[in-house]
Design brief:
With 497 residues, this protein is an alpha/beta fold. 38% of the residues lie in helices and 19% in strands. It is built from 13 helices and 21 strands. The protein has a seven-stranded mixed β-sheet, with helices on both faces. It has a five-stranded parallel β-sheet with strand order 7-6-5-8-9, sandwiched between helices. Strands 3-4-21 form a three-stranded antiparallel β-sheet, with no helix packed on it. The chain binds 2-aminohexanedioic acid. Belongs to the aldehyde dehydrogenase family. Pfam families: Aldedh (PF00171). Its EC number is 1.2.1.3.
């Protein structure tokens, strides 16, 4: 499909795509595909006020009815899956099945949130006082600002929006400047769900298109109590303190530097498949991408040889073509950063396989993925580079391997390949991986929506998506009710008047 056909399939009219100041290009071929109108920073106050007004209505709608809106969104996403998936490919450069997979994540979280809308449970707690009942109630919080990155241009919004909406909160979305079209297309889908729903308040779901000034307005506004921000640790260092300064709540999903430990007992065929998918899938541009391989010395040479061979036959090119497994990096600067990091790794004693401009493809930033054998975990290895670079290091015993896995600033995802129960359980134990996600015989990427998603340390500590991540979008209220005719005080305090 041509870019124009892809845009038309998502319902864009010519006039929406021209005349604005935000230039959108496709990583596939570098072609300019749109010039979009940007939200004026001066409009932010009105946008936030609309969200606040919507909140005052939405918080009174019963949660299962709020779930109905998300159910309709899930239906509309199912109907639009192919079109939106193709637009993700156009705008973010993901291969077709990953573009579709991203929309599937949106559908999955809608299903999850619909069920959740009838399960926003609080606890009943034993009171120490006679004739008293204690309990916990979960209430809506208010508008939720979602700042998302280019690499999951629509799924990350849906993880936040589906939960926020059933929890009773309006959503204001600031997508990456690199991927505004997928955001606008998602809003068209959302609008169809809103139309079918009927009486949702205006301002319940909004999108703002533009640069940092808009994000700044969200982050600093006391009327936006929740900020969920996905992106680099550098971005999180700016956003986190600003939200904290006004005692807002932030949900931060920042950098990852995810490792796999490959133990001597590992099923190497499976490990090779897992490594290749998680290191080169999405051209190494997932926050869960595999970046570090910590391999037992007894199998290191063999595994590297198998990987170098597997890397040699990976189809690189136009992500729309069936069969392509590696599409482009998002842009030229991303390729320059990859090259700069490979140069640094060489200077630190690394041996680089691959990592060149991909032959025979033009237009976008197409690279061959790199495997870099490193003498140890150097400064370069400890930094996240958003590109398909896999650093390989050896280890002798598991304690050393776990220490190496943990000895980076980031703490998102991790995994071990082993058939040894002791090793697997140790890796998942309190003395094992320090990451938010730790897997056994599965790569670090491609998490399902049912689990809480997020990580520790410089990854930011936030949790989104499944499990009880919904609690991050509500305020907890502890209620104690006295149904006795006495007024006993807690802790046995006497205060007789
Ligand atoms: C991201 O890269 O920002 O686990 C999120 C995964 C996906 C989400 C990645 N479900 O790889």
């Amino acid at each position: 499909m041509s870019h124009q056909e892809t845009l038309a399939a998502c319902g864009f009219a010519e006039a929406e795509l021209t005349g604005g100041s935000l230039v959108v290009t496709s990583p596939i071929d570098g072609a300019e595909v749109a010039r979009l109108a940007e939200t004026a920073p001066g409009d932010m106050a009105g946008i936030i006020a609309d969200a606040q007004a919507a909140f005052r209505q939405w918080r009174e709608v019963p949660a299962p009815r709020r779930g109905e809106l998300v159910r309709l969104l899930g239906e509309e996403l199912r109907a639009a899956k192919d079109a939106l998936g193709a637009l993700v490919t156009l705008e973010a450069g993901k291969i077709t099945s990953e573009g579709l997979g991203e929309v599937q994540e949106m559908i999955d979280i809608c299903d999850f949130a619909v069920g959740l809308s009838r399960q926003l449970y609080g606890l009943t707690i034993a009171s120490e006082r006679p004739g008293h009942r204690m309990m916990e109630t979960w209430h809506p919080m208010g508008p939720c600002g979602v700042i998302s990155a280019f690499n999951f241009p629509v799924a990350v919004w849906s993880w936040n929006a589906a939960l926020a909406l059933v929890c009773g909160n309006p959503v204001i979305w600031k997508p990456s400047e690199k991927t505004p079209l997928t955001a606008l297309a998602t809003m068209k889908i959302m609008q169809r769900a809103l139309d079918r729903f009927g009486d949702a308040p205006k301002g319940l779901v909004q999108v703002i298109i533009g640069g940092p000034a808009l994000g700044e307005a969200l982050v600093t506004s006391r009327d936006v109590p929740i900020i969920s921000a996905t992106g680099s640790t550098r971005m999180g260092r700016i956003v986190g303190p600003k939200v904290a300064e006004r005692f807002g709540r932030s949900i931060l999903e920042l950098g990852g530097n995810n490792a796999m430990i490959v133990a001597p007992s590992a099923d190497l065929d499976m490990a090779v498949r897992a490594i290749v998918f998680s290191a080169v899938g999405t051209c190494g541009q997932r926050c869960t991408s595999l970046r570090r391989l910590i391999v037992h010395e007894s199998i290191r040479k063999d595994l590297v040889a198998r990987l170098v061979k597997a890397y040699g036959s990976l189809p690189i090119g136009d992500p729309r073509q069936p069969g392509t497994l590696i599409g482009p990096l998002v842009d030229g600067p991303a390729r320059d950063r990859m090259q700069a990091m490979l140069d640094r790794a060489r200077a630190e004693g690394g041996t680089v396989h691959g990592g060149e401009t991909a032959p025979g493809v033009t237009g976008g930033a197409y690279v061959t993925p790199a495997i870099v054998e490193m003498p140890g975990q150097t400064d370069t290895v400890r930094e996240e580079t958003f590109a398909p670079i896999l650093y390989v290091m050896g280890y002798e015993d598991l304690t050393e391997a776990i220490a190496m896995q943990n000895d980076v600033p980031q703490g998102l995802s991790s995994c071990i390949f082993t058939l040894n129960l002791r090793e697997a359980e140790t890796f998942l134990s309190a003395v094992g991986s320090d990451c938010g996600i730790a897997n056994v015989n599965i790569g670090p990427s491609g998490a399902e929506i049912g689990g809480a998603f997020g990580g520790e340390k410089e990854t930011g500590g936030g949790r989104e998506s499944g499990s009880d991540a919904w609690k991050g979008y509500m305020r907890r209220q502890t209620n104690t009710v006295n149904y006795s005719a006495q007024l006993p005080l807690a802790q046995g305090v006497r205060f007789d008047i």
